Amino acid sequence: MYLNNKVHEIYLNAEVKDGSKLSEMLQYFKTADPEDNRFGPLSDAVKKQKNFNREVTDMCSAVEEYAKEYAKEYAEKETTMTKVEFVNDLINDGCTLEKALKLAKLDEETYNKYKTA
């Protein structure tokens, strides 16, 4: 079937390694090695894209690590605040501070730090 759509298709075999420039370029397309500078602007574009991807990956990892740390700190603070509220409720119900702290598994220094917060 013939289509007159002004498109020219060329099929190349990237498995052939005959030492020609075309063969070398096809091998380059398969590996896209950013350290291979044999193909001028093409090599520059590949290097730029690969480094950009690494930078994005590094930034994503840094943001993800920050989010995990923030979530951990937030959860710890919320847990402590819940324990402080529990101690206050126990004290309001007539429990001693020492007993309330023991039941809440909270030390007095932490309680005093957060009880007015």
Can you walk me through this structure?
With 117 residues, the protein is mostly helical. It has a domain at 34-114. Helices cover 68% and strands 0% of the residues. It contains 4 helices and no strands. Helix 2 packs antiparallel against helix 3 (97-104). The termini are far apart. The mean pLDDT is 89.
What distinguishing features does this structure have?
117 residues; single chain; 0% strand; mainly alpha
Helices and strands in order:
Blueprint: H1 21-31, H2 40-92, H3 97-104, H4 108-114
Helix pairs in contact: 2-3
Category by helix and strand content: mainly alpha
Distance between the termini: 79 Å
- What is the approximate shape? rod-shaped
DSSP, total strands: 0
Task: Characterize the biggest β-sheet.
Answer: none
What percentage of amino acids are in beta strands? under 5%
pLDDT < 50 runs, ≥5 residues = none
Query: Count of helices?
Result: 4
Q: What is the radius of gyration?
A: 32 Å
Q: What fraction, in percent, of the residue positions are helical?
A: 55-70%
SSE sequence, one letter per element: HHHH
User: How would you state the average pLDDT, rounded?
Assistant: 89
Task: Give a brief description.
The protein has helices at 21-31, 40-92, 97-104, 108-114. By secondary structure, it is mainly α.
